[in-house]
C-alpha cells in the first residue's frame, strides 16, 4: 500500500532531495543529482525497490514539523514507554552528498529499528555490501558508492541491512548515509552535530532575507525554502519537482518526469524571487536561462536539464509498478522535442522583467534575443502543442499566440525603455498583427469568451493569463466574459481545472486533478478585478491544501481530497508566493507583469517591490 503523497516531507542540499514519510521511511532519493537514477524508489513500487526506515518497534503516535525557517525535519514518535525525535536533514558538503538522521530520546526509553534497502538504477540493482575495518558499511554498484556511519549494530538479512537499538531521554544516536563515486577515495566523516548546527544556520540566515507577506508570511517563507531546495546550486537551474511519475490521476497514465527545468516557469519564478527579496537567486536563474537557450533559435526547447542538457529522451521503467499501480513510470520527457510558441514570450518577458528589476544585463544577451525574434517572425503562424504539452495533433492554441504577442511587446518595451537597438517599427507591426489574429480567431463571439484553440469551443485555464501578461485590460468585456466562462465551466469544488480532459483530445485517457497553479491564477485575476474578498477566500482555500509541513503537489483531487501529481511542485509554490504578494503588497507582481504600473522602471533593486 503506497503512502499518501501528502504524507511526505522534503529534505535536500540544493543538489538532490529525498522524500521522507510520516512513518520515518525515506522512499525516494536520486543521487548525486536531482535527475540521477534513484537508489530509493519505494515511492513508485515497494520496499524492495529501495528505502531507508528509521522508526520505533512499537506502535507510536506521530507528529512532525520543520524546525522554524529551515529544511530540517523533526518527526516525533511517542510510544507507551517513551518518546523520541528523528531529525532528518541533508547538510551542505558539496559533491559528497549526505543524509543525516539523528535519533534523540526525549522521554523514557524507545525501542527503535532501522531497515536500509539500497537499490541503485531505480530499484533494479542490488549493491555489493562490505564492512570496512572502521566498522563503516560500504555499498558499491558500478559508479555509485554509499557509506553508512553509525554506532548502531547492523547486519545483513535477505539483501537488507537491519539494526535494532534503543534510545533513552537525553541520548542522541546518529545514522549517516554518504554518497561518493566508487572510484574516488573514501570521503571524510563529518561530525553530525556540527553538520546540524551548520545546516540550521544556513537555512535561518537564508530565510531571514524573505520579505513579509502579512498573515501569509509563514506560507511564503516555507514556499521560498522549498523553491531553494529545488534549485541545483552549481548552475542555478530549478527543477519543476524532485520526482517522476507521481500520477495526475491515481491509477492513470498521466505520469511524467518533472526533474527538469521548464522555460514557461521563467518569468513567474523570476518575479517570485525578486519580490521575496532574493536577487542572487533571481540572477542565477536568469543566467541559467541565458546559457540553456544559447545556440540556434530553431533549436529552442521547452525544457532543459539542470545544467542545460538538451537530450531528455523518454523511456519506461517497466520493473516499477508505479505509485498505487499508476503505470507507466517514465524517465526523461519526450515533450522536450515539442514546438511551443509560448517559450519565446517567456524568454523575452523574463529578460524584460530582469532589466526592470535592476539585474545585470549584457549586449550579447540582447543580440541573442533579437535572433529569437527573427525566428519567431517566421514561425508564429504555425500550430504547436500548447502550454500543456498535449501529445495529440498540433493546434493553433490561443495562449501560444498571445505569448508570441508578448515576445514582440516586451522587445519593444525593452528597446524603448533601456535604449536597446532593434527594428521597433517592424515589431510594432507584428504585435498588432498577432493581436488582431488572436482577437479574430481565438475569441468566440457566440460564447462570449476566448477559447482554447482556434476553431474550438473549449475553455482553457491558460486564458486566465491573458490579462496578467498585459494582452488586454482586465476590464475589457472579452476578458470579463472569459473569466466568467471559466468560473462556470472549469471550476470543480472551487478549484480550476486546466481544461476538460473528457472533451479535449490530448491523446491520453481522460481524468486528472485540479492543477493548483491555475487556481492561483484566478486569485491573481480577482486581484486585478479588485474582487479582493473572493481572491482572499480562494487563496485561503488553496493554502489550506498544503500538507502539515507546508508542501503542495502539482494537483489536487477534490473527490478523494488528496494531493496528486509530482511533489513538491515548484510551480505551485511560485504561484502561492506571487498570489500572496498580490494580496498583501501595494506593488504587486501581477501589476508588474500586466504592465499596469505607471512608475518609472526601478533603477535600484530596493525600489522594485
Distance between the termini: 47 Å
What is the CATH T-level topology of the largest domain?
Answer: Glycosyltransferase
Q: Kindly provide the name of the CATH class of the largest domain.
A: Mainly Alpha
Major sheet description: 15 strands, antiparallel
CA radius of gyration is 25 Å
Number of helices: 15
| Strand coverage percent | 15-25%
Low-confidence stretches: 598-609
* Share of residues in helices: 25-40%
Shape: elongated
- How many separate domains? 2
Mean pLDDT: 94
| Quantity of strands, as a count | 26
Structural description of this entry:
With 609 residues, this protein is an alpha+beta fold. The protein has 2 domains: 5-183, Distorted Sandwich (Beta-galactosidase, Chain A, domain 5), CATH 2.70.98.50; 209-598, Alpha/alpha barrel (Glycosyltransferase), CATH 1.50.10.10. It contains 15 helices and 26 strands. It has a 15-stranded antiparallel beta sheet that branches. Helix 8 (398-418) runs antiparallel to helix 9 (424-441). The longest helix has 21 residues, at 398-418.
Summarize the structure.
The chain is built from 15 helices and 26 strands.
Tags for this model:
609 residues, 26 strands, alpha+beta, Glycosyltransferase, 2 domains, single chain, Beta-galactosidase, Chain A, domain 5, 15 helices, three-stranded antiparallel β-sheet
Helices and strands in order, then pairings?
Blueprint: E1 8-12, E2 17-21, E3 25-30, E4 38-40, E5 51-56, E6 61-66, E7 73-78, E8 82-89, E9 98-117, H1 120-123, E10 128-131, E11 137-141, E12 144-149, E13 154-156, E14 161-168, E15 172-181, H2 192-207, H3 217-229, E16 261-262, H4 266-276, H5 279-293, E17 303-304, E18 315-316, E19 330-331, H6 342-356, H7 363-379, H8 398-418, H9 424-441, E20 443-444, E21 449-450, H10 465-468, H11 477-489, E22 491-492, E23 495-496, E24 514-515, H12 516-528, H13 532-543, E25 555-557, E26 562-564, H14 570-584, H15 589-594
Antiparallel strand pairs: 1-2, 2-3, 3-4, 3-5, 5-9, 6-7, 7-8, 8-9, 9-14, 9-15, 10-11, 11-12, 12-15, 13-14, 16-17, 18-19, 20-21, 22-23, 24-25, 25-26
Helix pairs in contact: 3-14, 4-5, 4-6, 4-14, 5-6, 6-8, 7-8, 8-9, 12-13, 12-14, 13-14
